[in-house]
Amino acid sequence: MRDLITMDDLSNDEIIEILDSAERLLPVAMGEIYAPLLQGKVLGNLFFENSTRTRMSFESAMKRLGGEVVNLSSVGSSVAKGETLYDTMQMVDGYSDIAVIRHPRQGAAQYSADAVEIPILNAGDGAGNHPTQTMLDLFTIRQAHGTLEDLNIVLVGDLRFGRTTHSLSHALVRFGTKLTLVSPETLRMPNEIVRDLQSHGVDVTETEDLASTITEADVIYMTRIQKERFPDEDEYAKVAGVYKMTAEDLSGAKSNMIVMHPLPRVNEIHPSVDETAHACYFKQAFNGVPTRMALLCRSLGVDVPKEVGE
Ligand code: ASP
Questions:
Q1: Distances, alpha carbon 24 to alpha carbons 7, 83, 141, 215, in Å
Q2: Distance 182 CA to ligand 1 centre (A)
Q3: What's the pLDDT tens digit per position in 27-62?
Q4: Is 130 in the pocket of ligand 1 (CB under 6 A)?
C-alpha cells in the first residue's frame, strides 16, 4: 500500500528517489514533453477545506501525465447533507485509482486510508501534517542549494498550527539540517515535535526575533498565521501581522538565501521582496506539479523512466 500520510512513510532514500523522479518530470510539468505515464488512471481530488495550489497542481500533474481527475469538495456534495467521511470514502474507492484528501480534522487522512483499498495522499489534515507540500519544499531547497544536508533553515510564523512546518521540520532534521524556529510565544512549535526534532541530534533553536536570524540563513520559510485554527478572533488579532518581511530586511542576507512560503501569504512577505533574487515562493508553488507527478507515479506503482519522453 502506497499511502503518504506523514513523512514517516518515506525513508530518506525514498525521498531522494522521488525528488530525482520529479526532476526528470520537469519538462512534462512545463508542458514541453507529453508523457502519458498515467493514462487510464483516475485521481480523486477530495477537498474538505480551501485549496488553490495543492488542488490545482495535483490536477495539472495528473492531466499532464495523461490521467483523469474527479473532484469532490464539501460544497456541492452530499457532505453538506451530513454524509460521513467513511461513507464518502467508500464511493471514492470505487470511482478512482488513487485519492488526495484535505480535511480540517487532524487524523482524517489516516482514517480515510484505513477505510479504503486505494492509495491515499494526505494533502493537509487540520493542524497535523502536509507531506506532499514537504516534498515540493525539499525539491525547491535542493534545486536552490544542490543539497538538503547541513543547511541553516529558519521556519517563521505560526509553528503551532502550521502543518507545513510540522512535516517539513521532521523531514529536514533527518538530513542533518540546522533549524531555527521563529514564532511568538503563543505560536511555538508543539513541545512533542520539538523533542522529536532534538532527538535527531541536530541543533534546534527557538526565538521570537526574526531579524537576528537573517544573515546566517540559507532558507527562510515564512508562514501565514492560521486564522481558521484559532478558537476566537481576539486571540488571532493579538498575533496577526507579527512578522512582516520587506526587501530592506534582507540587505544582510547571503546572496543565495531563498525565501519560501507555502502560500497563501497575507502580509508576512511584502511585495517588495518579490523583486529580489531571494524570492522563491512562486517557483516553489510551480514545483508542486513535478513533485506531485512523482508522488502519483510512486503510489500507483508506475516507474518514471530514466529518460522521460523517449
Ligand atoms: N496552503 C498551506 C496549507 O494548506 C499553507 C496555509 O494555508 O497557510 O497548509
A1: 22, 41, 17, 33
A2: 18
A3: 999 999 999 999 999 999 999 999 999 999 999 999
A4: yes
Task: Find the DSSP H helices in 185-287.
Answer: 191-198, 233-239, 281-286
The reply to whether ligand 1 has any atom less than 6 angstroms from the CB of 124 is: yes
Domains of the chain listed by start with CATH number: 7-129+288-299 (3.40.50.1370), 131-286 (3.40.50.1370)
Q: Provide the 10 A C-beta neighbour count for residue 107.
A: 13
- Answer for the pair 29, 293: CB distance below 8 angstroms, yes or no: yes
Q: How many CB atoms lie within 10 A of CB 165?
A: 28
Supply 9's cell numbers.
512513510
Distances (CA, A) of 183 to 73, 80, 81, 194, 242: 32, 36, 39, 13, 9
117 DSSP assignment: S
C-alpha 193 – ligand 1 centre gap (Å): 19
pTM metric for this prediction: 0.97
Close Cβ partners of 51 (under 8 Å, ≥ 6 residues apart): 102, 123, 124
Q: 130 and 109 in contact (C-beta within 8 Å)?
A: no
| Helix (H) or strand (E) run with residue 210 in it | none
Ligand 1 atom nearest the C-alpha of 223 is: 8
Q: Give the tens place of pLDDT for each residue, 255-300.
A: 999 999 999 999 999 999 999 999 999 999 999 999 999 999 999 9
